[in-house]
From TrEMBL:
Belongs to the ferrochelatase family. This is Coproporphyrin III ferrochelatase. Coiled coil: none annotated. It is found in: Cytoplasm. GO terms for cellular component: cytoplasm. GO terms for biological process: heme biosynthetic process.
Length: 301
């Protein structure tokens, strides 16, 4: 399962309306989101293609690890077709009676992964499908290894300045109320960050948030732009961003980091680079596949 994205520029309004629980965006809100997509893709939507490739790569990996024909992968998206319910219905139509659900993001939050799992389980029950739900895999060795390799390779791009690079781990912010709920999301992100930093041999790092929603409520911070501003006042000149809460090239990476954050940093005399995203990386696929095989034990498959 994944968040979803519009298929084209014409689908942005319907997508945005779904995110807003049926409330259409204002003309200003729609133009803001449309302009962001226009800035990064010019009408081509990389997240949709990336998600499709991830499904195909996960299928190949499961075939390699468990034997061809033992597993079949289906896709379900939160805010776009095929919706989560569509994916489960497709399984039912194929006669599937036992399934494992996994969300592409490795860290758990009741506000993100929890919502995906709830929808999948409700639909599965309608069709008599037994569903084992994976909540997180944020410390899987293959995931940490893949991220650490990207951090080390990225820092090497700074050449002689590599010793003066500060690594910023980041993830999508959520409403601050999750702290009161004792939601594991912030701690799991820190655990992922610590593990990657240790394996990459990085001692100079911080965690920051990004891409907060505009809902009128307080979201987790500091935001990455606030962090960059603070670092600039401390004399930091080189920043390398590792968005460990994301796995694909999409709006929050290609616009929020590559365009907005990079421009903000450059205006303060700083160089900002980021890791190459996982997308359908073989180690990432193996992390998911091995997690799925472990969860299948619950169903005694």
């Amino acid at each position: 399962m994944s968040y979803g994205t519009p298929e084209n520029m014409e689908g942005i309004e319907a997508y945005y309306t779904h995110i807003r629980r049926g409330h259409p965006p204002t003309a200003e809100q729609l133009e803001d989101l449309t302009s962001r997509y226009r800035s990064i893709v010019g009408g081509v939507f990389p997240l949709r293609a990336n998600t499709n490739r991830q499904v195909e790569a996960l299928q190949r990996t499961l075939d390699e690890l468990a034997g061809e024909g033992r597993y079949k992968c289906y896709q379900g998206l939160k805010h776009a077709a095929p919706f989560i319910e569509d994916g489960v219905a497709a399984m039912a139509a194929d006669g599937i009676k036992e399934a494992v659900s996994i969300v592409l993001t490795p860290q758990y939050s009741s506000m993100s992964v929890g919502g995906y799992v709830k929808r999948a389980k409700e639909e599965a029950e309608k069709h008599g499908i037994r569903l084992a739900a994976i909540e997180s895999y944020h410390l899987h060795p293959e995931l940490i290894s893949a991220l650490a390799k990207r951090v080390k390779a990225g820092i090497d791009r700074f050449g002689e300045d590599r010793e003066n690079v500060l690594v910023l781990f980041s993830a999508h912010s959520l409403p601050e109320k999750i702290v009161e709920m004792k939601d594991p999301y912030p701690e799991q992100l820190l655990e992922t960050s610590r593990a990657v930093a240790e394996q990459a041999g990085i001692s100079r790092w911080q965690f920051t948030w990004q891409s907060a929603g505009q809902t009128g409520q307080k979201w987790l911070g500091p935001d990455i732009l606030e962090t960059i501003d603070s670092l600039s006042r401390e004399g930091v000149k080189n920043v390398f961003v590792a968005p460990v809460g994301f796995v694909s090239d999409h709006l929050e990476v290609l616009y929020d980091l590559d365009i907005e954050a990079r421009k903000f940093a450059a205006e303060r005399g700083m160089r900002l680079e980021r890791i190459e995203m996982l997308n359908n990386d073989s180690q990432y696929m193996k992390a998911m596949a091995e997690t799925i095989l472990g969860a299948a034990v619950v169903l005694k498959l």
